[in-house]
Amino acid sequence: MPYDVIFRTGYFAILLGLIDELKNRDYYVIETSERIISSYKDRIIKIPDFSLCSIKNLKNILPDYPTRLFILCNSPYIYHYLPMYFKARLLSPENIFFILPSGTEIKATLSGIIKAIYYYCKDILADMYQAALFRYTGNPFYNVRVRERKIKFSDKKKVLFISYFFPPQASSGSFRPAKFVKYLKRSGWDVSVITTDTKHYLMYPPDATMLKGVEDVEIFRVSHRDSVAEMIDFLKPDGLRLFLKKYFQPDTAVLWSKKTFHKAVKIIEDKNIPLVWLTGNPFSLFYIGKYLKLVYPDIKVVFDYRDLWSLTAFQFYDTESLKTNFNIEKELIKYADHITIVPASVIELSKTFNYPIENITEIPNGYDEEDFAAKTDYGLKLYSGMKLGYIGSAYQDYSPAKVIEVVDRLNRREKTDIKIYLVGYSLEHCLRVVAPEIINNSCIIISHMEYLKTLSFMVDMDMLLLCIPENAPYNYSGKLFNYIRANRPILLIAPPDSAPQRVLQTVGSGDYISGWDEEEIAMNLRKCYERYLNGQLVCYHDRERFIKYSREEQTKMLNKIFSSLITFNN
Hints:
alpha/beta, seven-stranded parallel β-sheet, six-stranded mixed β-sheet, 22 helices
């Protein structure tokens, strides 16, 4: 019997009266949220998330096929998930419709999407107006009045951290500021944090376990509904996508940074904070540092580069945007009293922007010994063959796609028995270049696992996989140091003499290093598999050599920098 499937997005769909659209339809409701399932009684189809894997499984759950898919839409976030339905071949775009509060049905074609964007995203249009003014003036803080203020800063160890990412957001960008805050507090620092609110996390569900160690920190959250970023990511036609993206330089958090600046001023004056640490990306946060220096000439500002900005291919700028970002970075960097940096690019950064090299300190990412001591059960029965683990987010270039294809070829042609565990976010997006049958045969995908559980999971892998793109040899990748602490053999796919390769060569033995050539990858995998069969796939990471990468030791370096910048009484 033909029926409609109703995909409900946004809790306020009910409040808008969209739920009334169900009355005259033979429907099933697809939902992930427990809190409103009772509203639909026996019509609910529960899925864990809106990943491609979950949506594909709908084919096995739904009775036959729906005639149409209706989206009770009051949120622009749906545009992020629509491609998943197309990829899963559940329905074609011609059979997917948005239902507006007026009852109007709009087809999910490109023109329909644009109409829905116009209807639902009036806040985006307002932001675009602000962004257009920014583009015209060349300054996102164009209407901020800069007037020097003299305040008596505290002589105590006080610092304000400003980070777009922070727990409970389970983003790779959350770990670094959270671990610094955790160990700075133990060193006697009074730390305050400004970050985004928890209501509009885009890709990463909250992970409460990441708040361990920072529970008593005063956290100020500034709202940022980044529907702009979601819209830009979905609109694949390059002309429209680039047109929108150019309005938001250096990134879509630029408007959030402006709101955060005003919040920072209030906190600094209320608490007499003499020192501010800002981490990018998003690099628009560095605008906050500039304007704080203009308002408070005596305040000390530290810029933290988790990635390189205009000097890295990681950001994927077109020619015009690259020039714009380079000039923005050149202007802002001179307001930093000190720079901490993750990538091994101190000399390059100093020379390019004529910044004193003695004021740049390389502090890579690291591991937290206390997190490993927790030994959290992840509750999964593991594959019986060789287990190769890729844990963490994947991006376009930081993708294990080529390794997956090599593993699948070895499994089919040489009868190896290797499974790649892919644990993290953004995996479906990055693996779209791999045939679905290859992924099904050679991979096990886990789209969400709490952070502490992933550490126990690493320890139980036979081997761990790390991929560094050829155009980013300076980047470490945050997962490297957790991999080392897990004390499992590491297969590193990276360009020659990369930063991770140098680290692995100094901390111990038993790791395998390969370039991106498929035959070289296959050769290393054959060696690993043979040693696995013989019980010899082991490694030795010398604790004395890699303890400097512990978060506690790294925070001692940051503590030293902070103490050199300000005078305080213990």
